[in-house]
Design a protein that fits this description.
- The complex is a heterodimer of chains A (about 290) and B (about 230).
- Chain A is built from 11 helices and 4 strands; from the N terminus they run H-H-H-H-E-E-E-H-H-H-H-E-H-H-H.
- Chain A is mainly alpha-helical.
- Chain A is globular, with a radius of gyration of 19 Å.
- With about 230 residues, chain B is α/β, with parallel strands linked by helices.
- In chain B, helix 7 links the parallel strand 7 and strand 8.
- In chain B, helix 3 packs parallel to helix 6.
- Classes of the chains: A mainly alpha (about 290), B alpha/beta (about 230).
- The interface between A and B is medium-sized, with 21 and 24 residues.
């Protein structure tokens, strides 16, 4: 029983990390129709910044804040100088964002060297609680809580604010949003920066979670995030959250019981969704794909 | 003159769609763009809105050149747009659709919204319903409401009768008659009965060029012109 509980906790925590990456990806795709293969690069830069600043200052919180700031800056620069010139050209977007992904990964090696970096949870979050017969690892609980808070926050932003209203309208018809007097380019940039910040936050949380980080982790997680976005429905935040939890749980259980099939199960899930519900679990009708 | 379009030429990809369209829209009137399918009427409206910017020519609105401005800046100058497909945000409610267009929530805007909801009471009834679930006529009313809520001096309305049942078209005509007392309208319309019921002046486009203009009353009485340019027997 405690094995099942631990696997569930692991799966939920991993799912929330993937969700942080997928949330930005699905927002960016839903609004701008940009397949951002460089999104994993933001995740990796967030991880390195978080781990390095944490090591230098001894403050995990400062590390996370710096990682998010780096994500915002990278996202803003990328949208303005790399993505904006290729809006509307899918092939160029794919080529250029794959290129940026490679550059971001290599730049990590230039700045921090080719070896992996190690990290650990802060003292306050190290160790575990024993509740009844169950062991609850504190840091995993934090990751789950942060993921839930981000889910609630993004949903409130989308449903309770004017910016969220404009984003949802822009997902449906960006040209009409402009015809109503709204500068959609500013909205694109804000969403891109928000998405990059969430990815960087996910990366910053990953360091102490996995213990080690390496420069190529961005692409590994980006693949999982793409699977999550497809399963959840492109443009849907609740869809991405649910799909991330499914993928996280499937990965945790398969890793334990049938390790050889742990990646295959995610691909199989995606295949089933594409066959039986190609718009994804929560695919929005208004999304132009 | 509220709007002056001078010899605009517009390309879509390699296609030379507008090849010299000129027109003037006086304040307080309904100016109607007429012409056969493919004459360039919709492209003229989209060019005015900056969605397909002109390669040549100029567009002057309230004395200011707007043809090099982006779409959102043109809309901010005071031009509302009701596209042919209505352009409603299907996953947003009626209320949310209107709120996207409301840049201010001052007393004047609230009064205007109250007037709009009196004009289109259906929208009040379906206030919290997803716009994608509205009927064609209700979607048209919603699209008009969004263009009106910002107190725009000019609204561009593209084929408001398209796809609507005759009884619904009558409702839209009645609404536009009231709207014309509050704002200037540049209307694209294939339904000549509707166009003549609303229009003060007309322009006929053909092959991307302005061919003819004059008063709507004169055109309505001239069977030969209607047959030649509009194919109406």
């Amino acid at each position: 029983m405690d094995v099942l509980f631990n696997l569930t906790l692991n799966g939920l925590a991993t799912g929330m990390l993937i969700f942080l990456l997928a949330a930005g990806l699905t927002l960016i795709f839903g609004l701008m129709h940009v397949l951002n293969f460089a999104h994993g690069g933001m995740f990796a830069w967030g991880a390195y910044t978080g781990v390095w600043v944490y090591a230098q200052t001894g403050s995990f919180t400062i590390g996370v804040i710096c990682a998010v700031i780096v994500g915002v800056i990278l996202g803003g620069l990328m949208e303005r100088w790399i993505i904006r010139p290729v809006y509307g050209n899918t092939m160029q977007q794919i080529l250029i964002t794959v290129g940026v992904m490679l550059v971001l990964s290599e730049m990590l090696k230039v700045v921090w060297g080719p070896n992996q970096l190690s990290s650990h949870p802060p003292e306050l979050l190290a160790g575990s609680w024993q509740v009844g017969g169950f062991i609850i690892i504190k840091y995993r609980l934090l990751v789950i809580l942060v993921g839930l808070l981000v889910l609630i926050g993004v949903q409130l932003l989308l449903t309770r604010t004017k910016l969220g209203l404009i984003v949802r309208a822009g997902v449906s018809d960006p040209e009409m949003v402009q015809a109503l007097g709204i500068d959609i380019r500013r909205v694109f940039m804000i969403v891109f920066m928000l998405g990059a910040a969430l990815a960087a936050l996910g990366g910053a949380l990953l360091g102490p979670y996995s213990g080690v980080i390496h420069a190529d982790m961005g692409m590994e997680f980006a693949i999982l995030a793409f699977i999550v976005v497809v399963i959840g429905g492109m443009g849907s935040i609740p869809g991405s959250a649910l799909a991330a939890v499914i993928v996280g749980l499937a990965g945790a259980f398969m890793n334990y019981y049938v390790p050889d099939l742990s990646l295959a199960v995610n691909l199989l899930l995606m295949l089933l969704v594409l066959i039986f519900r190609p718009q994804g679990l929560f695919g929005a009708k208004g999304v132009q794909q | 003159m509220l709007l002056k379009v001078e010899q605009i030429e517009t390309y879509i990809d390699q296609h030379h769609i507008l090849q010299g369209v000129s027109l003037e829209v006086p304040a307080g009137q309904v100016t109607v763009l007429l012409g056969r399918n493919g004459a360039g009427k919709t492209t003229t409206l989209r060019t005015i809105m900056g969605m397909t910017p002109p390669a040549k020519g100029q567009i002057i609105f309230q004395g200011e050149a707007i043809h090099q401005l982006p779409t959102h800046a043109i809309a901010q100058k005071g031009i509302g747009y009701v596209p042919e497909d209505q352009g409603i945000f299907a996953d947003l409610t009626v209320e949310e659709n209107i709120k996207v267009a409301m840049h201010k929530e001052d007393a004047e805007t609230k009064d205007r919204l109250a007037w709009i909801l009196d004009l289109f009471p259906d929208l009040k009834s379906f206030w919290e319903r997803k716009a994608g679930n509205l009927s064609g006529g209700q979607k048209q009313m919603l699209s008009l409401s969004r263009a009106l809520v910002q107190n725009n001096p000019l609204i561009l309305v593209d084929e408001p009768s398209k796809g609507l049942a005759p009884v619904v078209v009558d409702k839209v005509v009645d609404a536009l008659k009231e709207i014309k007392d509050h704002t200037t309208i540049l209307l694209v319309e294939q339904n000549f009965a509707m166009a003549s019921a609303l229009g003060d002046r007309f322009y006929i486009l053909d092959n991307g060029q302005t061919q003819l203009s004059g008063s709507m009353q004169e055109l309505a009485q001239n069977e030969e012109l209607k047959r030649k340019w509009l194919g109406i027997a």
